[in-house]
Specification:
With 104 residues, the chain is an all-alpha fold. It has helices at 21-28, 37-62, 70-76, 81-103.
Length: 104
């Protein structure tokens, strides 16, 4: 058919990057133990779009440097205090882990 897009072609196949983790997260946040695959797929689409948008914002913040840094991601998340605080918490924990490893 002319103008028909084949959604089963390799170009449009889903990679299911978070196929194992998302149902567990959904259950942990109150969903049923085995959520519908359609629900998982929709949530994965939203998650992948969010990650892509955040990476694009960080890349724009990096500008002509050509290298995206943690500071660029912090800048991209500056309008969401909860996410920014979580990023800073994870960075602090990573530093603690690195310090502990260097002691052994």
């Amino acid at each position: 058919m002319e103008g028909h897009v084949d959604l089963t072609s390799k170009q449009f196949q889903r990679h299911k990057l978070f196929g194992k983790e998302l149902p567990l997260l959904m259950y942990g946040f109150g969903d049923v133990i085995s959520p519908l695959p359609e629900s998982v797929n929709v949530l994965e689409d939203i998650l992948v779009d969010y990650i892509n948008d955040t990476c694009i914002q960080a890349a724009k913040a990096a500008g002509k440097r050509g290298r995206v840094t943690v500071e660029d991601f912090k800048f991209a998340l500056r309008k969401d205090p909860k996410k920014l605080a979580r990023v800073e918490e994870l960075i602090a924990m990573n530093k603690e882990i690195e310090t502990a490893r260097s002691l052994f």
